[in-house]
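Why predict the complex rather than its parts? Because the way molecules touch one another can change local conformation, and only a joint prediction can capture that. The input here totals 1010 residues.
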Amino acid sequence: MTTNIQQLETDFLNYVKKITAYEEALNLMYWDLRTGAPKKGVEGRSEVIGLLSSEVFKMETSEEMEGYLNQLLDEKNKEHISEIALKTALDCKKSFDRMKKIPIDEYQAYVTLQTKAESVWEEAKEKADFDMFRPYLEELVATNKRFVEYWGYEENKYNTLLDIYEPGMTVDILDNVFRDVRDGIVDLLQKIEKSDRRVDTSFINEHIPKANQEALSIEILKQMGYDFDAGRLDESVHPFQITINQGDARITNKYDEQDFRIAVFGAMHEGGHALYEQNVSKDLAGTPLAGGTSMGIHESQSLFNEIFVGRNKNFWKKNYDLLKKYANDQFDKVPLDDFYYAINEVRPSLIRIEADEVTYPLHIIIRYEIEKGLFNDEIEIKDLPAIWNEKYKEYLGVEPDHDGVGVLQDVHWASGAFGYFPSYALGYIYAAQFKNALLKDLPNFDELLAEGKLEEIKKWFNEKVHQYGKMKKPLEILQEATGEGLNARYLIDYLQEKYRDIYQF
Amino acid sequence: MTTNIQQLETDFLNYVKKITAYEEALNLMYWDLRTGAPKKGVEGRSEVIGLLSSEVFKMETSEEMEGYLNQLLDEKNKEHISEIALKTALDCKKSFDRMKKIPIDEYQAYVTLQTKAESVWEEAKEKADFDMFRPYLEELVATNKRFVEYWGYEENKYNTLLDIYEPGMTVDILDNVFRDVRDGIVDLLQKIEKSDRRVDTSFINEHIPKANQEALSIEILKQMGYDFDAGRLDESVHPFQITINQGDARITNKYDEQDFRIAVFGAMHEGGHALYEQNVSKDLAGTPLAGGTSMGIHESQSLFNEIFVGRNKNFWKKNYDLLKKYANDQFDKVPLDDFYYAINEVRPSLIRIEADEVTYPLHIIIRYEIEKGLFNDEIEIKDLPAIWNEKYKEYLGVEPDHDGVGVLQDVHWASGAFGYFPSYALGYIYAAQFKNALLKDLPNFDELLAEGKLEEIKKWFNEKVHQYGKMKKPLEILQEATGEGLNARYLIDYLQEKYRDIYQF
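Output of the joint prediction:
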């Protein structure tokens, strides 16, 4: 009996390994498409991606998979299998249920809709024409509502969507923490507005050649502990991190020769994601557990590096000379303090991805409130532009001239990713909580930054977060690393303290 | 009935398309491994390649495949299917038979042997220790002999191996043309040796930065008509061309900063392969017919560009200034004629891949004679080093100091590729025949080169060779393009005429 179960576990893990092999091939194809695949090969490539993806779908929903899951997750067997096999089975079961509950023709129609909607969105954004995109968005939301009915939900329909990206996250939890974040930031913004301090940023936008920015990015990534023997850095239109396999976590960067901040903070952001992926326990290789546990925890790693390290004055005590080495003479007469103020200027704006670290969460909260309203039938799609603009006016004091810089700015809804946005703000909140816990173990955090000893910080995250992959749920990781649940206080405290100094209120 | 056959044809072509989708993924993974994949990802990658390759093997030898082939190739159905479906089925049938006739355990043992043999060979070459490699080579030859028995053969066992790389090629044909080539070249070498002309190459080996060589390679590739929207150029240890899909024929190059010839002629060689792949008819997409028809015809395209274009004085009339633009001042005082002599210096040497265009075929003929002897039980493995050295002495007048620069220099035998070498010389012979035929349509060939109008030449090959992919057999292509069969005379005439001028005999 035990022998049979062990054989079953081995067969199951081999089956799962085959699925991850396909995913490695698919990820390499995505990476290649976005880093220089020639354009005439794109059409053929898309067909191949479609074909191999459908093979993955078949394996994930096959009778063979169902058989493994039924047996391994049977109460009498569960205790006889390894923890890795059990958690792998639970993860596969979640995907299996999600996919099997949707009628196959509805699923295929949805995939087609997504593709079409993304291309319509691109044009609509360009033309600032919401009405052009509206029927697609209506169909996307309607389909996702039907899917939620198929999948089932507890308390709030939107919870089911949140759970896709952040397992265990609910509207109840988010309403609370997002209220705290919003109140804290609105209060802080008022203080900043009243301040007389004006930040000089005149020296930022000067020309630095791409090659220099790349060399600088590489030096900073090495300092962070990014392992170039287990990854590579390339250029792409939008920076991203992608994991090909456990020894190959790639990142890309974008270079604006008139604004070094894009490359420096982009590298630190994607590098943060990659540190997570590079340091998952090797025991999890070949299973779906060998990656970040949720979008939110993943984002905590990128934001920790980008913001809590990269926008800290001590980091620049170490690295300002390095920047000067690769820049022209634009910084030669700029004292470190002024440089530090400049890279932390607060300025409420319309575009999420260009937001400063204070106003960024407000962009997310607006999207969260709208998504929640849509899935609880409190908001109609036709009213979206007006609601969007009102909320920007209320929270940020700015109003879009047109929908291209308003409700149409992000691709997420066009690709059907409802429930994704909150992870950006969650990552930020998690990161502040981790920072607080880390300070207990490494009270010399600021000195480590000033000395370039970022490896010490990486080691802390390796132990508390990275190694577990998906073996622990997001809130489990948070609880064990910090001793408490989700709490927005640390983020607000961090922002208040930092900006009190910068804006001297 | 007809409807059924048409449905069968569609199903079969979809099945084949799925196989080519896997091959696209595999080719991208190979390309990636050789152009910069991080080393810690290599082990995982190898497993994934093994896994997806075995899926391809399963599909190519499946009962489903057998069913399609039996029905489509049935006499009563053959005439009702399209020519593409028929030739695809014949191509699949050839692979099917080759794989199915070998017992699966022998096949697997052979794959393991190949991998092991390649790594032993690498060390043996390094240490110049033939005895270390000998047992593996014995096993490789013995296994291939057994395979030939399984596959069957006509007249000569070696014919079956030749047919893998050059369909339709036989020992009878090769014995004749290779004798002509050998006699012609040996005669030519004697004349060159007697000549008083000494070629000055002192200005060749000066430093040219890699970036300059790359820019120069790109300009030359564009002139050749290589479509950068349907391919890309990267760097690798050994240059190669690989086709990802019909709109994506990639090439790599190698840069020696002390010898620009490596990059320039390497780019033209790989570019020639790529021109073939980029210009196969789009009707063949998704079938195994969408590629070069044989190793020999493929090599004719690379060698035509590298040698018949790249080492022609008229090509340099157009491009010598371009080279000077990217070089330092090393050529400023060198007249074009002297430059032309230098890049065509003849010097018998030990290493095949470093050979000049006159002696190159002799390196191939030596290998051909040895392979033929091995598979006809006329040569024993233990005698190989002695036989090798004797032949080099006899044909080229040089003798290896050790086996590392002798019998161990090539990887081909270690990877079991017996029958492959002749395609290098065949490609050269084909290329000379194509040149002769092309001159009838484009008598102004030299002027086109001098004016940089290489597109005209490309168009000729598009029409006569490229478009057909594997729809025509190598000797069919040759016959239709040149009006005759394999004939070594054109190569010998070309060499005699060219070197009579250079060495003034």
